[in-house]
Amino acid sequence: MYINSMCLSANRRFPLGSKDVKVRKHGLELIHKAFIFAKKLGIRIIQLAGYDEYYNPNDEITKSNFIESMKIVCDLAQHYSIQIAFESMDTFFMGDLTRILNVVNTLDSPMLSIYPDIGNLTQFAKENFASEIELAKNKIVAFHFKDTTHDTFKCIPFGKGTVDFVKAFKAIFKINYCGPYMIEMWNKNEPNQTFEDNIKEIRDAHDFFEQKYKEALDDFKRY
């Protein structure tokens, strides 16, 4: 058994574009520790949260700070021989693959890729989902599988959101993608939840994934 990738979400609280140098420094320290952790466990990909800012307003300064911080992160990625990849986020800054690709091209690092979140991307590129996937196809290393709505990006039960998974999978099939998918799930840690409840949720999510994947594949083969 191996762990292919890990998600580092701490940069929401400690964004790399913050105007507070202490916040940026701590964000970089967390990423450095993540590289060491990943190296020890043999994890090949670290998914990064593409926030220049989250809890405070962003502007050209925060965007510039983010790029400068990411230059350091890209150097660390080369040092540890670990791939880093931006998730398509729940904010405009990196909500679609066009904007992510602009940052990736600016940084121009062989260690930097893209890790689209199907749910997030749907909300920012619903009408041009397929063209976004096509545009970024040579930089995609994995996908997050998650349901969302136009204003809620987590804790949506599969099938209760607005994501058209069959359409999304068919767009992914068109680029001949053969990499991994990660089912993203959230737990509210309700006091009345049992171990069995959690296992059932995981199984249901996996069954839902397989169902939508098969529906898309069967439809895709007809054309």
UniProtKB/TrEMBL annotation:
It comes from the Bacteria. Residues 192-219 form a coiled coil. GO terms for biological process: L-ascorbic acid metabolic process. Residues 3-203 form the Xylose isomerase-like TIM barrel domain. InterPro entries: Sugar_Epim/Isomerase, Xyl_isomerase-like_sf, Xyl_isomerase-like_TIM-brl. The keyword Chaperone does not apply. This is Hexulose-6-phosphate isomerase.
